[in-house]
Amino acid sequence: MTSYRIIFLGTPDFAVPSLKALHQSNHEIVRVVTQPDRPKGRGKKKQAPPVKKEAIELGLDIIQPQSINTPECISLLKSLDPDYLVVVAFGQILKKAVLDIPSKSVLNVHPSLLPQYRGPAPIQWSIIHGCSKTGISIMQLDEGLDTGDILQIETVSIDPKETAGMLHDRLAESGASLLVDTIDKLSEQRIQPRPQDHSSATYARLLTKKDGLIQWQQPTQSIINFIRGMTPWPGAYTYLNNKRLKIFMAEKADATQIFPPGTVLEAFPDELWIATGDGALSILNIQSASGKQMSVADYLRGNTIVAGTQAQNEPD
User: What is the spatial distance between Cα 305 and Cα 296, in angstroms, rounded to a whole number?
Assistant: First the structure.
């Protein structure tokens, strides 16, 4: 089987399995390109991205350009004479001069069934929208936003209780396997690129912390899906008694009466039920602004939330 020279471009945890899979294959990773170290946490200490940490463990050469599109960076990458550039959640837009560097193609691992959920947050939005399946698309990168020709697609079912974090980890592994398989099949000319149906494309926009506010007027199942899709980041939250509470897990409650959405309902002492647009939700795991994640029963032992309390969109 043909061995190719590959430049790998990736930054977060999602890209690590693909880097490892390529390293374990018969192909040669001639350089790893990742984002610069960034300040993180309360101390704002600079931390290396996950791909850099893994590349160091694997003994691979690394560069961390502020922009991959500078003449200096392009010249360096060209000098490595790559057959493929492989891009997995790199975090920078590649201009045509970079796309033209490899002798064969620029490959991208995208966690959705393209053309559905193009963009930066396909995993979260597929869960928020209640999808029962998603997948991995291996495509040829072009100058558009996830618009390139498809090489292979693998469909993955979404478990009804799966969070975005859980699905992220599964898709990262699936993407790694499909990536190596795609390169091998390309070497044997067993697959051909096929254009996407742009008319059926949807977009998964980037999420921010503000997007996590729960809208209690939504149907119960929609809120459950929203919480799953927002976990672990940016996190679903609400305000009760002027306290910001992050919610990690919830299920439908057997409420017999309809109350205004966002109303705390009568329940057992170790339960927290909140009215929704069509019923009620039972909160299972919660975290206060200054605390740690815990069961709602543990939280209620030290915090009183009386029936009739109304959820707020922001603290008073």
Answer: 11
Could you tell me if 247 and 194 are in contact, meaning their C-beta atoms sit under 8 angstroms apart? no
The one-letter amino acid at 231:
T
Using one digit for the tens of pLDDT, what is the confidence trace for 78-101? 999 999 999 999 999 999 999 999
Structure tokens at 63: 């560069």
- CATH 3.30.70.260 at 209-302, yes or no: no
Counting Cα atoms < 13 Å in the Cβ hemisphere of 104 gives 17
Where do the DSSP E strands lie in the chain? 5-10, 28-33, 38-40, 45-47, 62-63, 84-88, 105-110, 133-140, 150-157, 236-240, 243-252, 264-265, 272-275, 280-288, 294-295
**3-state SS assignment for residue 293:** coil
Beta bridge partners of 310: 263
CATH topology of domain 5-200: Rossmann fold (3.40.50)
**Cross-strand bridge partners of residue 62:** 32
The arithmetic mean of pLDDT across residues 254-258, rounded, is: 88
